[in-house]
């Protein structure tokens, strides 16, 4: 499978291949080798082997990200340098589904998307939204300021009518869905 970032004039594509792992699907889940593919020449370069699940390409094609359930962490790969970084290790709360009781590695709480220019990626813990540097050089910032954890709410970014590949603007208010974990009450917040 080959997929572009969000630009129709992509210069770099993301290639995923599960061919070496198809026999594992019946008992161990799905795996993919991840390639960066030059859109003009078709030349491909293997960048990550045996990713459990899927990887994705950032909108500006600068980063490849994936979830590793065994490590219980999000990783990024700089498409230029090939540097791999654990981008969730500095988040002080688990980013994996703590209630997952299946025999497989747990899934993540998810990713909301990217900010303009591939500057940051938004990741979730059980309650809050985190702004994370894909290079791992800046400390993660809790965009919801810990309110979700304090009030037992689960915040998630809402993108009404937006294409999921579109970036999340940080210079305008962001709409958040809010779900109270105990009472199941739900609603919306606006955050700046």
Jot down its keywords.
192 residues, mainly beta, 15 strands, 5% helix
Structure in words:
- The chain is mainly beta.
- Helix content is 5%, strand content 40%.
- It is built from two helices and 15 strands.
Q: Please report the total strand number as a whole number.
A: 15
Structural class: mainly beta
N- and C-termini, Cα separation: 37 Å
**Spatial order of strands in the largest sheet:** 1-2-3-4
Query: What sequence of helices (H) and strands (E) makes up the elements?
Result: EEHEEEEEEEEEEHEEE
Low-confidence stretches: none
Beta-strand content estimate: 35-45%
Q: Please compute the radius of gyration using only Cα atoms.
A: 17 Å
Mean pLDDT figure? 91
What's this, in brief?
With 192 residues, the protein is mainly beta. The chain contains two helices and 15 strands. 28% of the residues are buried.
What order do the helices and strands come in, and which of them pair?
Blueprint: E1 2-4, E2 12-17, H1 25-28, E3 31-38, E4 44-52, E5 55-57, E6 63-68, E7 73-78, E8 84-86, E9 111-114, E10 121-124, E11 129-132, E12 141-142, H2 147-151, E13 153-158, E14 174-180, E15 186-191
Antiparallel strand pairs: 1-2, 2-3, 3-4, 5-6, 6-7, 7-8, 9-10, 10-11, 11-12, 13-14, 14-15
